[in-house]
Specification:
Chain lengths: 281, 555, 325
């Protein structure tokens, strides 16, 4: 991946817009303590101030515990985006490593890894995560990163394997091998840079998959532990009041969909930029 | 006069002419009641049906010997009404009860219900190979004799005030002519059990597991055929769906409306509510023993003064109003107001945050350097609160508790677990505190298992392993007493001991509101079994829906 | 060729064995007890629980349970699902066809709609229909599926009463209905859950289809076809689509295993007791034989689907298809 690809990417209007959305969410997450009008766990009056519609004091309304939804959404960005980003990095690392092993060593290593990928893709990911939650029983944000990342590397592994198998046959790799370079050296110097853009695409897709999954996990009651706010558990509070408290549904969904959408668009544009580069070389 | 009115008038006249005898009036009968259920029955085998759903279905299919009366009295046989047994008499020493079966009683296949069926059911219920959940109820029964086919003579080892209740409320006579040939170990999934032949007002039609159970009126029911033509339990796993089914008019009955459902009632237009007493109460239970080593007291909650101080720091009225609005009342102690031993005049620990803070200070727990949380000799006043992921109300209460504890300087970490993991931790005592909820029974006896000192035969479900000699002694005396006044007096002391020693923070008692389609006339809903009077429910023929017009019940 | 097939079969067997063993081992660590609670969450007394455990062999050491289970499996017996008091095979026989129907219809609808939307977008590339549909497909992927389901159930079902809220069929006098009426009624209940699932499938497919078509439309032979004066639809339909369908078929291959894996939350919300819900409940109930059997079934199907995709890919695109997910 070279500078030209990046330039090409950022010449693209929707890529810029998507990056801007992600940057905004990231900023909201980082600056949440300063941007939030209230402490996100503060319950001023859980009887009289619960489920208030948006107003000047509470621009996004209050939840069933009288907490300020805006503050929770901002702080929720920290958890949701943090967990998603962590899971994405973990998934990319595991996926790249296993994909590379499968491609480079082939044979039984490939068979076992590819087979495992096939099987795990067949089982709904929510079930895998619920099984792991049931087994290990804790739900701290760090552990969620491990669970979501540990179950999200499949696509990355698949892509990296396919890409590397192609790349391994390219002239420059064969040439490097002929010159006596070791396998690991070839992987490090030639193959990883070659798959980096594809990994970036897969990572963006992984990010887009993790955020709704966190919401689904909250929906079955096994998401981020209260009183920590996450977009998923704000939405969970909203699902009880679908017909009466729209603000508990609309805002977290907008946050989720906006972030996921931005990640998807970025993945698209990145893929297009790579394709263009491949054509022009 | 409009046509509907005239039709009703004609019906009324016909009724008079036929000497209308309630449910015998064929003209008023019919319609299918659809119950929106949140869970499937786990089995239709009465000894193994531990859940509420399984009980509902099996108790519609099978009749008992006698049923508890509307007052839910559990002492002696006061108020009990005849079912399969037409009448019964006591021996002079109260150790033998002779039940005379109703000669009209028939199994759904037409065979008479006999004393052998009672004897057989007792044998099945007490066989450990069957594994009946409520077997403990028969601890005082020695044997059953059958002098003739319509007489069952029950011999007890000892006299206890609740011996009649325990036997009659639990035992469901089973059709020995169909089941006796099957080994007890194979009964639980025998085809004869999955398609049961019972003696009750409704007979089994079909069961699609996880989707629906269909019952039809037993036309030959010995106490007169039910007014409804059929009952269907429609199962859905998601709470919102269970309520939506009722609100859309697809279902006619929902056992308990959740607080958010009430907001949707006006828009639905077809649903009204029916209030009845509930047997549930919820609490935050302290673990009084160390989570890792049960021989040691819990570092915090081994101390009753601390438990009391924490209780005083909690504004239960606010929690109840926030979570339930007006659909629950603050709990008083280890009982439900619906139990006849309940006492609303007991003195609870009042909410007083300032006093709670003082008490915590005096116990050495002082606000630390962060200005929020308390500590003593460098040890923070912090604990984790185990919450089952399956219960939204317990989750919501936990979130509110956590914030209130923070106000008095106590750091609470919530620990959500799926229900199975929750029970596992609870059974092993591997928790600091947990959000508990109980459905009690008409009998106050259960309190002994849940709050009594754990020893053999007692305290099997006392997860917090709380132990209080006053409580134990008075519960035991209460359970041995025969006069209702004496029982109440003993329980009063025991309950007060439990409140004062604070093994838990008593949080809420939900009031039960069933959702009912307006075309359905439900009788009184009994708190322990809403389905108890279902044979008397009816659907107004003027408001029949297409689904009510079903073909005459298939044999 | 035969050697290749045997090799693939051996690999598949190895994968299945690895999965079965690791699921079993993993389950040993899960706290909880298959007999702790009834379906509606009523606590089972400890003494009774011990008896039930003993009856179903749960008190045996894990290694012995595993060998017993594998031995029974070799004889074609899947074991006993204690949480439902019936044989695992019966549970699967109930749940699998429901999921096949639900997910099958959703995949068919979703792929047809997705390919069509992709074509439309490619046809109007860069203009408002493309942008509008692009925003919609983005939304279809980005909004959590369970929320779409809940909204559809609450508003279309309960509030406006346009569709049944939940269940497999209407209650009523089914005996008096003709087979045709019953079929229609079943389809009527399928409509909402299948459509919700199809929306998210269609959104994913459309995004792939559009990208693939736009890639192909750059090729020389398309320019040739256009130069010949072929209409834009004809170019798309006859020349571009056959060459751009590869990645979409690969996506279909990835989606096929969900025919057995099911759609957990949609099944839960719409009271459609298929495999997703069954497996979810089995997990929460710690019903090990049921979990193992269902996982095994999903595994076998995944391996089959993979083989099928490979064959189809060979068949459809003799020339090397573009990589990518």
């Amino acid at each position: 991946m070279n500078a030209r690809t990046w330039l090409r990417l950022f010449a693209d209007r929707s890529a810029r817009a998507a990056s801007a959305v992600l940057a905004l969410v990231a900023f909201a997450a980082l600056a949440a303590p300063w941007l939030s009008p209230f402490d996100p766990t503060l319950q001023p009056d859980p009887v009289l101030l619960r489920l208030l519609a948006p107003s000047w004091t509470h621009p996004l309304g209050t939840d069933p515990y009288s907490r300020d939804v805006l503050s929770r959404l901002l702080h929720g960005a920290r958890i949701s985006l943090g967990v998603a980003a962590g899971a994405m990095l973990l998934a990319a690392t595991i996926g790249t490593t296993l994909g590379a092993i499968a491609a480079v060593f082939g044979g039984w290593a490939d068979a076992v890894i590819s087979g495992l990928v096939d099987v795990l893709i067949a089982v709904p990911r929510l079930l895998i995560v619920v099984a792991l939650v049931a087994t290990f029983g804790t739900l701290s944000p760090v552990w969620l990163v491990v669970l979501l990342g540990g179950s999200g590397w499949l696509t990355t592994a698949r892509i990296v394997r396919a890409e590397l198998r192609d790349t391994l046959q390219r002239e420059y790799v064969l040439a490097a091998r002929a010159l006596g370079a070791t396998t690991w050296r070839i992987i490090w110097q030639h193959l990883l840079p070659a798959v980096a853009p594809q990994v970036a695409v897969a990572a963006a897709l992984a990010l887009a998959a993790v955020i709704p999954l966190e919401a689904a996990l909250s929906f079955v009651g096994l998401g981020v532990q209260p009183p920590l706010a996450s977009w998923g558990n704000i939405l969970l509070d909203g699902t009880d009041y679908l017909t009466s408290a729209w603000w508990l549904v609309v805002f977290p969904v907008a946050a989720i969909a906006g972030t996921v959408g931005a990640a998807l668009v970025l993945a698209d544009r990145l893929r297009a930029a790579i394709a263009n580069e491949e054509q022009s070389t | 006069m409009n046509p509907a009115h005239s039709r009703r008038l004609i019906l009324a006249l016909l009724c008079l002419a036929a000497a209308c005898r309630g449910r015998d009036a064929a003209g008023a009968a019919g319609g299918t009641l659809i119950v929106s259920a949140g869970a499937d029955a786990e089995t239709l085998f009465p000894p193994l049906a531990v859940g509420n759903q399984g009980r509902a279905v099996t108790e519609l299919i099978y009749d008992k010997l006698a049923d508890i009366g509307p007052a839910l009295n559990t002492i002696g046989d006061v108020g009990f009404v005849p079912r399969l047994a037409q009448r019964w008499e006591w021996s002079a020493d109260s150790l033998v009860v002779t039940f005379h079966l109703d000669p009209r009683a028939r199994w759904h296949d037409g065979r008479s219900v006999t004393a052998h069926d009672v004897q057989y059911a007792f044998a099945v219920w007490t066989d450990s190979a069957v594994g009946a959940a409520q077997r403990a109820a028969f601890a005082t029964v020695d044997s059953i004799a059958t002098p003739d086919s319509l007489t069952a003579r029950v011999h007890f080892h000892v006299r206890t005030p609740e011996q009649f209740y325990a036997f009659v409320y639990t035992l469901i006579p089973l059709p020995s002519h169909r089941l006796a040939a099957i080994a007890d170990t194979a009964l639980h999934d025998a085809p004869e059990i999955r398609a049961p032949v019972g003696s009750g007002p409704f007979r089994f039609v079909s069961w699609t597991p996880r989707a629906r159970i269909e019952l039809a009126a037993n036309e030959q029911y010995y106490r007169g055929r039910p007014k409804l033509a059929g009952v269907v339990f429609a199962v859905a796993a998601q709470g919102a769906t269970v309520a939506a089914r009722l609100l859309s008019g697809e279902a006619d009955f929902l056992e308990q409306l959740a607080p958010p459902d009430f907001a949707q009632l006006p828009a639905s237009g077809s649903v009204r509510t029916a209030a009845y007493g509930g047997f549930d109460y919820g609490f935050m239970q302290f673990n009084t023993r160390d989570a890792r080593n049960a021989t040691r007291p819990h570092a915090l909650f081994g101390n009753a003064a601390l438990r009391r101080a924490l209780t005083m720091g909690i504004d239960r009225a606010t929690i109840v109003r926030s979570v339930f609005d007006s659909l629950a009342r603050p709990a008083i102690g280890p009982f439900s107001r619906t139990q006849w031993t309940a006492d609303t005049t007991l003195t609870g620990i009042p909410f007083d945050a300032a006093r709670a803070a003082q008490l915590l200070d005096s116990l050495g727990w002082r606000v630390g350097t962060d200005g929020v949380y308390r500590e003593r000799q460098g040890r923070p006043l912090a604990f984790s609160l185990l919450v089952p992921a399956s219960s939204r109300t317990r989750q919501a209460s936990a979130v509110l508790l956590q914030a209130q504890f923070k106000n008095i300087g106590v750091k609470v970490t919530l620990e959500q677990a799926d229900f199975n993991a929750f029970l596992d931790k609870a059974h092993h005592g591997a928790f600091d505190a947990l959000m508990g909820g109980l459905r009690t029974t008409p009998s106050p006896r259960g309190v002994r298992d849940v709050w009594g000192t754990p020893t053999t035969g007692r305290g099997a479900q006392n997860w917090g392993r709380w132990s209080n000699a006053t409580f134990d002694a008075h519960v035991d005396s209460a359970l041995a007493a025969t006069g209702t006044t004496a029982v109440r007096a003993q329980f009063r002391v025991a309950y007060q001991a439990a409140i004062d020693d604070a093994p838990a923070i008593w949080l809420y008692e939900p009031r039960m509101f069933a959702g009912v389609h307006r075309r359905v006339n439900v009788g009184t809903l009994r708190p322990d079994a809403w389905w108890a009077s279902l044979a008397d429910w009816s659907i107004n023929p003027d408001e029949f829906l297409p689904r009510d017009r079903r073909a005459a019940a298939k044999p | 060729m035969t050697r290749l097939v045997i090799h693939r079969l051996l690999q598949a067997a190895a994968v299945i064995a690895v999965v079965a063993t690791s699921v079993f081992v993993l389950l040993q660590f899960a706290p909880g007890d298959p007999f702790a609670t009834s379906l509606d969450g009523t606590d089972v007394p400890p003494g009774v629980r011990a008896e039930w455990r003993a009856r179903y062999g749960f008190d045996l050491p894990p290694a012995e349970r595993f060998t017993r289970w594998a031995g029974a499996l070799a004889h074609g017996q899947l074991g006993y699902a204690a949480s439902q008091h019936r044989a695992v095979a019966e549970v699967l026989a109930d749940a699998v066809p429901r999921t096949l129907l639900l997910v099958g219809v959703a995949l068919a609808l979703g792929f047809a709609a997705g390919v069509f939307v992709g074509l439309l977008q490619a046809r109007h590339h860069g203009r408002w229909p493309d942008r509008l549909l692009g925003a919609m497909t983005l939304g279809g992927v980005a909004v959590p599926e369970f929320l779409l389901g809940l909204l559809a159930m609450t508003w279309l079902g309960a509030r406006w009463r346009l569709f049944p809220v939940a269940g497999l069929a209407s209650e009523g006098d089914a005996a008096a209905w003709s087979a045709w009426e019953r079929l229609l009624d079943h389809a009527w209940h399928l409509a909402l859950p299948a459509t919700v699932l199809a929306v998210s499938v269609a959104a994913r497919v459309a995004r792939h289809q559009r990208a693939a078509l736009l890639g192909v439309l750059q090729e020389d032979y398309i320019r040739t076809a256009r130069a010949k004066g072929l209409g834009e639809w004809a170019v798309l339909w006859r020349h571009a689509l056959p060459n751009a369908i590869g990645p979409v078929l690969a996506l279909l291959g990835l989606a096929l295993p969900s025919l057995v894996g099911g759609a957990v939350l949609i099944e839960k919300i719409f009271g459609w007791p298929g495999m997703g819900l069954t497996l979810f409940d089995a997990l929460l109930a710690r019903d090990y034989p049921l979990i193992l059997a269902a996982t095994l079934l999903a595994t076998i199907l995944a391996v089959l689907a993979r083989a099928l995709t490979d064959v189809v890919a060979e068949f459809v695109a003799p020339r090397r298809t573009q990589g990518g997910a």
